[in-house]
Design goal:
This protein is mainly alpha-helical. The protein contains 14 helices and no strands. Helix 5 packs antiparallel against helix 6. The longest helix is centred in the middle third of the chain and has 37 residues. It is elongated and about 75 Å long.
């Protein structure tokens, strides 16, 4: 009676490539990972595509504002351009969206305000993710008194109203540059990231591959950064993506209140435009539109990433 099963040698022969690499057998799918599945979902998600295109356009505007306007955002000419109405036929011209009460181009200020907002939002998100992620990772991995101390410190900072505390900090500085605003936002903004990372690390550290690494004598730093962090970072990425838009809105709010950046900023322009809202609403309208589009793009991106990385959504 002929054999119905292959010997181990035959199996090796049929599943090995000429260069010695092992190939998947017929009918066997390639191993799938969380990141691979997430990217497969994102590529077909219209929310991710639209938000990514908008963010890419905003990045180009921030990096190369001269491609979109030749006008200076700080150039003033009260005699010639005081509250001059928009000339919608002059696309991309200095007078395309009109001039404000100081004779400055509304369009040029909207373009150059993109750089300040993205720098503050991106810088704050990076600082919050690094610091809050480190605190949460240490608290979740070591537990015990380290977790108790770090968690109580996190709770103390979490209990301070974010916007109010940031205003108090910025009010103590005479000059509020981009690094100062980033520092003030980071000082009270890291708590949520720390909490998310702590919970994710607590789940990951009990997995078999972490226990196996400990049994093999791997160092603590190697376990943390080679095994724990890569598998616990997904929820933090989602929080950071959504928070970036929140920080951009927070910067605009602080600038609107006179406690944010100096110079071209959407918050400053919205604040300046409120005094002429009845006679020249366009001064406040266009920076408001830019701010809303930017915040919405990052929130949409965060929602798409969250759905892709959440196994419950599949």
């Amino acid at each position: 009676m002929p054999e119905l099963t292959k010997t181990s040698a035959e199996k090796s022969a049929t599943s090995a490539a000429p260069d010695g690499r092992r190939l998947p057998e017929a009918g066997q799918e390639k191993a799938r990972s969380l990141w691979g599945d997430a990217w497969r979902d994102l590529r077909t998600n219209w929310i991710f595509i639209v938000s990514s295109v908008l963010i890419l356009l905003l990045l180009v505007i921030a990096l190369f504002p001269g491609l979109f306007t030749s006008a200076s955002p700080d150039a003033k000419d009260l005699a010639a351009h005081y509250l001059q109405k928009p000339e919608y036929g002059h696309i991309f011209g200095a007078d395309w969206l009109g001039y404000d009460a100081q004779g400055r181009s509304v369009y040029a200020r909207a373009i150059y305000g993109t750089r300040a907002s993205l720098l503050v939002g991106g810088g704050t998100t990076l600082a919050v993710t690094v610091f809050g992620g480190l605190v949460g990772m240490l608290a979740g991995y070591f537990g015990g008194w380290i977790d108790a101390v770090l968690s109580r410190i996190t709770d103390m900072f979490f209990g301070i109203p974010f916007l109010l505390g940031t205003m108090v900090m910025l009010n103590s500085f005479t000059e509020r540059s981009i690094p100062i605003v980033i520092l003030a936002l980071t000082f009270l903004g890291w708590t949520q990231t720390a909490r998310v990372m702590r919970g994710s690390v607590i789940t990951v550290k009990s997995q078999d591959y972490v226990q196996a690494a400990k049994a093999l004598g791997a160092s603590t730093s190697r376990i943390l950064f080679r095994h724990v962090l890569p598998n616990a970072i997904a929820p933090v990425i989602v929080v950071a993506t959504i928070a970036l838009g929140v920080y951009i809105g927070a910067e605009a709010t602080l600038s609107y209140l006179g406690l944010g950046l100096e110079g071209a900023s959407w918050g400053n322009d919205i604040s300046d435009g409120q005094n002429q809202i009845r006679v020249a609403a366009y001064i406040m309208l266009y920076p408001s539109i830019m701010l809303s589009i930017t915040v919405l793009a990052f929130i949409m991106l965060g929602e798409a990433v969250r759905n892709a990385l959440d196994p419950k959504q599949r």
